[in-house]
Amino acid sequence: MVRVLAVLTHVKPTTFSYELCEALAAIDGIEVTIVSYYDAAVEETAMAPESAVEFVPLNASSRLDPTAIAHLRWVLRTRSYDVLHTHHNFVGSLARLLAPRGTRIVDTEHADHERHYSLPQVLVNAATLPRADRVVANSRRTLESLYWFERLGLDDEQCSVIYNGIDVDRIDRVLEEPRDSREGEGPRITSVGRLSETKNQSTLLRAFASLADDYPESRLTIVGDGPLREDLESVADSLGVRARVEFTGFVDREEVYRILAASDLYVQPSLSEGFCVALVEAMACRLPVVVSDVPVLHEVVGEAGAYATPTEPAAFADRLRRLLGDDELRREFAERASDRARTEFPLERTADAYAKLYRELLESS
User: How confident is the model at residue 182 (pLDDT cuts 50, 70, 90)?
Assistant: First the structure.
């Protein structure tokens, strides 16, 4: 039996590290306990009542909450576990700092360090990263983005890539639901993500506006919420397309899949990503995808989608126009995308890779 103690910032519906814990707990011979730094009770989280994962909330009110830190230290020193698995910048570094000597530690890096983290955040991570026996990145790009000083004390063989995965069965349960006919409706373009500078939805809005004359019945659905929502709504107004753009705000995962199932194209205009689960879920929903021409999305999409320069709305509009005007090409891209998502990125494959890593680490000790 391999007992894993996973330290997370929180457990939310979109927290991949939580989904990974659930998938690991479903593997014979793996037990998982989640320590959540900010959550106060399991009822506040996305955890299902029937979850096999044990849950320890620390109810931190701030990063440096002394009670939460003391509780975390106590958990790390009194719980019985074989592997400490750290995620997320500050909380992961804190757990590595407080873990007793001799603790076997696996760390997962989830984001592009050059684009996602500030220098102080990187320095906090770097201070304890050498305590990890294995450092896993969710893409080659994430691994390459680690600064030289984060790699100090780490050998190349300690670092590896395990791609994130998606719950294909959960998606398929929604895809099998009966859906209303969309006959007579115009094409629906969808994008999913936090409304932020990095996700770059303003470029998508400008690309969509330039399609207005060619596809006056087209609709754009932007799923998610975030600090730029009002700004993006204003951009849509200024472009004269606000009536044709739906901002859904936050919706649960099943509703996201329903929206994707009722869409014709998916767009990911991000300036950077660590991996992008939302994109792979759209691919699994058999949507042709148009994505930013950035290295990590080449890792994810391969030859299964179309690429556009993220700072050029005209480039996105061109790719969208081409796909909207060619039914056969759209079907071909949709099949390629679905095959790649379902073959390369199922969640079970990700969990199996981590389980193998845990066992290899323990066997080598």
Answer: low
